[in-house]
Amino acid sequence: MAPDQLLSGWGRTxxxxxxxxxxxxxxxxxxxxxxxxxxxxxxxRSYGDAAQCSGGTVVDMTARDDVYAExxxxxxxxxxxxxxxxxxxxxxxxxxxxxxVTPGTRQVTVGGAIAADVHGKNHHVDGSLGLHLTxxxxxxxxxxxxxxxxxxxxxxxxxxxxxxGLTGIIERATxxxxxxxxxxxxxxxxxxxxxxxxxATMSESDAHFRYSVAWIDCLAxxxxxxxxxxxxxxxxxxxxxxPSGSRARRDPLAFRPAVRIGVPAAVPTGLLNxxxxxxxxxxxxxxxxxxxxxxxxSITSFFHPLDGVRDWNRLYxxxxxxxxxxxxxxxxxxDLRHLVESVAASGCASFLTVLKxxxxxxRAPLSFPAAGWTLALDLAVGNPGLGPLLDGLDxxxxxxxxxxxxxxDSRLQPELLAAMYPRLDEWRQVRDRVDPDHLMQSDLxxxxxx
Amino acid sequence: xxxxxxxxxxxxxLGGGSDIALATVNxxxxxxxxxxxxxxxxxxxxxxxxADLRRSHPDTLTVETAPFDALERSGHDKVIQELFARxxxxxxxxxxxxxxxxxxxxxxxxxxxxxxxxxxxxxxxxAMLAVVKQFRAQGRGTLVVLSSVAGVRVRKAxxxxxxxxxxxxxxxxxxxxxxxxxxxxxxxxxxxxVTTKMTAGMKKAPMSTTAEAVATTIVRGLESGASVVWVPxxxxxxMGVMKLLPRAVFRRIPS
Lengths: 450, 255
Ligand SMILES: Cc1cc2nc3c(=O)[nH]c(=O)nc-3n(C[C@H](O)[C@H](O)[C@H](O)COP(=O)(O)OP(=O)(O)OC[C@H]3O[C@@H](n4cnc5c(N)ncnc54)[C@H](O)[C@@H]3O)c2cc1C
Ligand SMILES: NC(=O)c1ccc[n+]([C@@H]2O[C@H](COP(=O)([O-])OP(=O)(O)OC[C@H]3O[C@@H](n4cnc5c(N)ncnc54)[C@H](OP(=O)(O)O)[C@@H]3O)[C@@H](O)[C@H]2O)c1
Hints:
By secondary structure, chain A is an alpha+beta fold. Chain A has helices at 85-92, 110-115, 123-126, 154-160, 195-205, 274-287, 299-303, 333-345, 386-399, 417-420, 424-434, 443-448; strands at residues 5-7, 16-21, 38-41, 57-60, 67-71, 76-80, 97-98, 133-140, 143-147, 169-176, 178-179, 184-192, 211-216, 228-235, 293-298, 321-329, 350-358, 372-380, 403-404.
């Protein structure tokens, strides 16, 4: 079969063609492994080329979304890897359970989330998704294997967490949900004058909040460098919803995400430029209160504000955009300031710039998060200064002992991979055991020589 | 792989001794390119070019050479197929071969005029179709084609070369349109007068440029997602006007 379906990541930057297989529930996967390469795909929310396999086979897992088992006493659910976090929330939030980790969009699959070992605003408290799994069923070129965080196949389990689909196709997973009393969050919002104030505030008091993240005005320079809006919150208790008998308390676990509006198919290139970003940033910063103010927010507005706009990635126009997400360990605050400075001084405007504090990492050799700071930038592609800017940031990140997030990467220098992921060889050994002929391949794995 | 900025990791030059192509390889090797294959008809020229490239990028660039003659059309499919048979395939192909011919001589010698057309147009057609076949199988690829302003509006002073480039330019545009949605990208490059081997000893035309400038523009074009670039870029407007001139006026413009 000729590769006939064009696929790209969420950033829409490097589309390539592949044969797409879309197995239904119960269809065997063993026959899909061929020499021209195979990679599973979820909802395509990784920004770069992690779920593409040009000239090979892409296995679209989204038709497999069953729930196999659930125990609502303990919160353990076993679901097919193609199930979306959106579907899990619609099913379990009204029953008083929440997913242990959610990225900035609900439109990701369980398989994709595990393969990226996603982190959420609660990383400093709860760690990344891998810590909340009790088992996986994985189909590798060498057969189907059950594995868990402990036990004989633990190496395979941890190589699969954050393994970007390269150790095999996750078929199902058991995860532990977390109990919630309401579907609301009690959120404190405050402005920080500059990056130092921001980092100090987060370091001092993030521990009081399960969820914490800061939005940074990436165009502010000089004394306002890193001026930002910090939002931190906890799941609200029923009492926090309002006085007893009030309307808000009648249906405390309601989960009704708003209808999604769309973006027109043809958006002029350059809509998100330095001027529009500057205007937006100014308004956003001014809107936030000077000192912390508490408000109640829904799961959607707090965790997934962008999900309200369908296909918002089209706003960046034909050439697409990329997300650059880095982490540097605690102690590298000067490097972090330098990184923010370089971005602010460059001609490249990041529409969304987000800073968060990570807690400790986990045992997965390719997992991205580790104790320190993480900064994410959304950047339109096409500006000639972008390549040199990011290559420069890479150097700072590496010398600070940090790394960039592969699930979002689309342009890293392959030579830096091993320095960023020092346990790469350990991961490769496990991968080579289950896939000695390297049939599992993605455009990303080929590009970076994984 | 081509990355998000359009930078390739491996490339093939057809017409591997071309000054413009070599400047482009240099520029791409400064980005992500780690493998370059120079294909052409004169091994000694290719070896020298390969040695230069290795010297400029000692630790990062692997350079190979391979035989390729634009005039041996019937072999193109096979030669190209063999060049693509490597792990990872080839991300980007530069179609750089061409001969300028000698208008005065060629006008008097139809066979020699036909050779200009055969190299610049017919040979490019077979080579490009063979490349596209490989690109389709690998689900991706970027084709960079060196056209010329000489083909945008053909002048009496070099209408044999000019019409061969006009044919190439038209073929490339149609091919590019037919490839939308396949993962294959085409960048059509229209330089004016470039000081290279090809133009050595000729009187410099106005707005003349260098191989390095063409290379920089090609890299920018890959980054910005352009389908056509002109070098220098102002030629887009100059040629826009030229195309509108009535023939009677256009033919009086001194060359
Ligand atoms: C708006 C937005 C916000 C985001 N916010 C965050 C965030 O806060 N934190 C964070 O960590 N990430 C975040 N992400 C990134 C996103 O969570 C990850 O890229 C995630 O992997 C996407 O899941 P997906 O189902 O779309 O997978 P895809 O993008 O389709 O695939 C991603 C990877 O998972 C692999 N994969 C998919 N399914 C399987 C399977 N069944 N078995 C094995 N491997 C599989 C693929 O091969 C690929 O390597 C965000 C993305 C967007 C668009
Ligand atoms: N220079 C300019 O002013 C200018 C302007 C506009 C467009 N261009 C175009 O840009 C491209 C590159 O030109 P350049 O300036 O870099 O000139 P160049 O250095 O002369 O390169 C042309 C190359 O084509 C090769 N070639 C000729 N006939 C061939 C054949 N039958 N088979 C294989 N290879 C063959 C030549 O190799 P040999 O060593 O074997 O001859 C030479 O390496 C050409 O398409 C040219 O038309 C040039």
